[in-house]
Amino acid sequence: MKYNSVFDIIGPVMIGPSSSHTAGAARIGKAARNLFGEEPAWVKIYLYESFAKTYKGHGTDFALVGGLLGFDTDDPRMSKALDIAKQKNIKVEFIEDDAKADHPNTARLVIGNSSEELELVGISIGGGKVEITELNGFALRLSGNHPAILIMHNDRFGAIASVTRILAKYEINIGHMEVNRKDVGKEALMVIEVDQNVEDRILQELENADHIMQISKIVS
Amino acid sequence: MFRTVAELVEIAESENILISEVMIRQEMDVKNVAREAIMRDMEKNLNVMEKAVEDALQGVQSVTGLTGGDAVLIQNYMKEKTPLSGNLLLDAVSKAMGTNEVNAAMGTICATPTAGSAGCVPGTLFAVKNQLNPTREQMIRYLFTAGAFGFVVANNAFISGAAGGCQAEVGSAGAMASAAIVEMAGGTAQQSAEAFAMTLKNMLGLVCDPVAGLVEVPCVKRNAAGSTLAIVSADMALAGVTSRIPCDEVIGAMYRIGKTMPSALRETGEGGLAATPTGQAIKEKIFGIAATVKE
């Protein structure tokens, strides 16, 4: 089921004007920010279909940037996000892409600083709910309904087992799991949706497990 | 977990509980939290809705100047004249439009199910409240009942204008409000479903054609239509009128209609009212660029 809580329907509390184009956009921005782990120095935002046609009117531009600044959907600073980014010297660029997208509200965010870069595709499916459909070239389907951990690892035998063993040790139940790799033996991504929030000490232990490169966490 | 309106009604009837209670219990189960926490969270949403209506009745204006102030005009008219459509109905219209005026003015609102359609549920609630005198808990339950029906729509069809047109937004919102009104007025679970079906049937095919891509024209006034239909359908259901097409099939029809709706009429600002000469002139004035017209 795409929606599992009544608060997806009655909610979120948000700054207007559009749940899919403002609140949803802010959540996509915030997911990218959380995964990147810090405030980016520059952002390039590609918009598709309805997002591309109406982003100025709907405030999709300031909402995406507000999310990247770490704002929640009801943050009163939301409508000033573009100015705030400018004051912080964050380089922001919007590109209206006329390519066809699978979903009418699609945004591709490429963000980075002098040393690192992250690329994420998010869709806003309505009522402020979003899904992350691509991360650094990996296709995935992250609903944001549950806390999740994203693990970049090397495609080697035992990598998955070493992660699930640690989660089992702390009695963390996996609700949904996906594994995706660029090529045999190359970089791979594990996406694990869990039922409860994962503490930092467990993340630390996961990071030290065999073949693990990098870990990030999304709190629902 | 219920997937359809038929299942929702069946649970309410077999356990002899309200629709709102079915939703509350499911939420407790899904989130694994206590009833008090869920009721408290929903009350926070109710407080946001109440504040938005209060702000609207003080008068608000959007940045573009396209919307704002109509909720006040209607309230003044009600004080000075006897409205032809009746005080309760017009009060709902004023509060529904007011909520969306606050949304367009970038104020704080609670999406129900979306921001563009955020007026129907609170607008009707704060109007019928004056006649039904509900407790605070019943007002919170109103939101759970509305949410239960919206939950079925969101999982079986869509609730965004970009995906399914305005029928998915104001259509769903108005229908959700009808179902909630019926429960608050003491109707049965099945009557809630009938009211929902009758409202949504009358919203089928409604396109999403925002002028200049803004959630202002025609969105604010569509919430007037959604809340009016919500109250009328609730009254019809309470009177014993039923829908010939079952509720779940109406939701299915809404989904198929949305799927075949051209993209120019799904929140791209390229067709319908957005493509009228005045709609284009407004876009040009605000953004300095002419509207793309596609239909």
UniProtKB/TrEMBL annotation, chain A:
The keyword Lipid metabolism does not apply. This is L-serine deaminase. It comes from the Bacteria. The gene is sdaAB. Residues 148-220 form the ACT domain. Belongs to the iron-sulfur dependent L-serine dehydratase family. Its cofactor is [4Fe-4S] cluster. It catalyses: L-serine = pyruvate + NH4(+).
From TrEMBL, chain B:
GO terms for molecular function: 4 iron, 4 sulfur cluster binding; L-serine ammonia-lyase activity; metal ion binding. Its cofactor is [4Fe-4S] cluster. InterPro entries: Fe-S_L-Ser, Ser_deHydtase-like_asu, Ser_deHydtase_asu. Keywords: 4Fe-4S, Gluconeogenesis, Iron, Iron-sulfur, Lyase, Metal-binding. Pathway: Carbohydrate biosynthesis; gluconeogenesis. Its EC number is 4.3.1.17. It catalyses: L-serine = pyruvate + NH4(+). One of its GO terms (biological process) is gluconeogenesis. The keyword Ribonucleoprotein does not apply. Pfam families: SDH_alpha. Residues 15-274 form the Serine dehydratase-like alpha subunit domain. It is an enzyme of class 4 (lyase). The keyword 4Fe-4S applies. Belongs to the iron-sulfur dependent L-serine dehydratase family. This is L-serine dehydratase.
